[in-house]
Design brief:
Blueprint: H1 13-24, H2 28-37, H3 43-50, E1 64-72, E2 75-82, H4 88-100, E3 106-109, E4 114-121, H5 126-143, H6 145-153, E5 157-165, E6 173-181, H7 188-210, E7 215-222, E8 229-237, H8 248-264, H9 266-286, H10 291-302, E9 312-317, E10 320-328, H11 342-350, H12 356-379, H13 383-398, H14 403-412, H15 420-431
Antiparallel strand pairs: 1-2, 3-8, 4-6, 4-7, 5-6, 8-10, 9-10
The protein binds (R)-mevalonate.
């Protein structure tokens, strides 16, 4: 079936729902009910959500959970997480508690520089372009003053603009490669506005001053931010890694091996890093940041040396186990959704209204903790034991189990291994 429409965005919300239901949904009455069920009764709140994007027909909920007991640089945090995967918050909480008893997480922000580029084509002499750029650079910055003034007052702004010659890759291709400090803002709008102003001045002045023509292809920030970098680390004596499943020394060695495998084997590295992103994305989302930007930047960073590799590293030296990660994170705690979404405001409040730098550290810790939790399970009990325990509730919900049924079955699986078929057979037994 292919049903198209023009002017969809002009329809009312109710008309949009009716159109979708009639043209695309097989069971129209239940589908409409499901869509409408997610409306919020609070009209103002609903309108706020409707206006985040175009063509809103409903709300899409994700669980909003909290992982407490994160000791970071001596301060205790409860970390808000928005995520649907059953085991993530539980694993984060467990790892937090584990490290709280062993000195907690240590973090440092290494750098906070963000990048944007004006991509352009120029067919003339490179020396002419270089001389023109040197001449016009201060004007590029001056013309952007109306955009940068407020940011500068707070200590941020444009750090530098370079001319980059990319003609070896594409004929006539050059860039204005600009660096920015955007403080507590993620800075996408600020950077893009500056870049579009640079492009305008650059093109106009090239014509005026040198009578040369510049073709601007595009002006856009980069989500690759290798100089907006944070480090998170945990360490303790090997013997402090005692675990009921395995001797401390064996655990430490297996753990370091597991990380080494992810360092050399891309198939493993992707899954390993996915586990890190379970923690990172959940906090990024809960705090109203752009998880797609973070994902893109982090994976690019994981392949910065030409091969995709692990984001975390681990070692044992002189009887000390150390596990750490350096990761690029461009985050904001002002602007964007942070001022708009009521739950985002609550999330930032839970974190004590952090600066962007603090948030970088908290998010990195959530990633490191998640990776620790995953590797701890993988190298000891295997992942399924804990994972299936958490997944149990999803299976019970699929079977629409009552509260009493849930209680009985959860109790049963405290001492039995959870598998899908074992759960089904318990439900059937109970209902017989
Ligand atoms: C599942 O969402 C994440 C893991 O696969 C991560 C890993 O394998 O390290 C458990």
């Amino acid at each position: 079936m292919s049903t198209s429409i023009s002017g969809f965005s002009k329809l009312t919300k109710s008309e949009k729902i009716d159109w979708i239901v009639t043209n695309y949904l097989s069971n129209s009455s239940t589908a409409k009910e499901t869509i409408v069920q997610y409306f919020n009764e609070d009209k103002k709140l609903q309108q706020l959500h409707d206006e985040f994007i175009e063509n809103t027909i409903s709300n899409y909920y994700l669980p909003f959970g909290v992982a407490p007991n994160f000791l970071i640089n001596g301060k205790t945090y409860a970390i808000p997480m928005a995520i649907e995967e059953s085991s993530v918050v539980a694993a984060a909480s467990k790892a937090a508690k584990f490290w709280m008893d062993r000195g907690g997480f240590k973090t440092t922000v290494i750098s906070t520089t963000k990048i944007g580029q004006v991509h352009f084509i120029y067919a003339g002499d490179f020396n002419v372009l270089t001389a023109f750029f040197k001449n016009v650079k201060s004007q590029l910055i001056a013309d952007a003053k109306p955009i940068t003034r407020n940011m500068e007052k707070r200590g941020g702004g444009i750090l530098d603009i370079e001319l980059r010659n990319k003609t070896e890759a594409i004929n006539g291709y050059y860039q204005l490669h600009a660096t920015f400090e955007t403080l507590d803002a993620m800075g996408a709008n600020f950077i893009n506005s500056c870049l579009e102003q640079f492009a305008k001045t650059f093109k106009t002045e090239a014509k005026k001053q040198r009578n040369v023509s510049i073709e601007i292809i595009m002006s856009i920030l980069s989500n690759y931010v290798p100089d907006c970098l944070v480090r998170a680390e945990v360490s303790c004596k090997v013997e402090a890694l005692k675990d009921k499943h395995i001797p401390a020394e064996t655990f430490a060695q297996k753990f370091v091996q597991a990380v080494a495998i992810a360092e050399v084997e891309p198939y493993r590295a992707v899954t390993h890093n996915k586990g890190i992103m379970n923690g990172i994305d959940a906090v990024v989302l809960a705090t109203g940041n752009d998880f797609r930007a973070v994902e893109a930047g982090v994976h690019a960073y994981a392949s910065k040396d030409g091969k995709y590799t692990s984001l975390t590293h681990a070692k044992i030296e002189n009887g000390i186990f150390t596990f750490w990660m350096e990761i690029p994170l461009a985050l904001g705690t002002v602007g964007g959704l942070t001022n708009l979404h009521p739950l985002v405001k609550v999330a930032l409040d839970i974190l004590g209204k952090p600066t962007a730098k603090e948030l970088m550290q908290i998010v990195a810790v959530a990633g490191l903790a998640q990776n620790f939790g995953a590797l701890r399970s993988l190298t000891t009990t295997g992942i399924q034991e804990g994972h299936m325990k958490m997944h149990l509730m999803n299976i019970l919900n699929q079977f629409e189990a009552t509260t009493t049924e849930k209680e009985t079955i959860v109790n049963h699986f405290k001492t039995n291994i959870v598998t899908h078929s074992a759960v089904v057979s318990e439900i059937e037994k109970l209902r017989r």
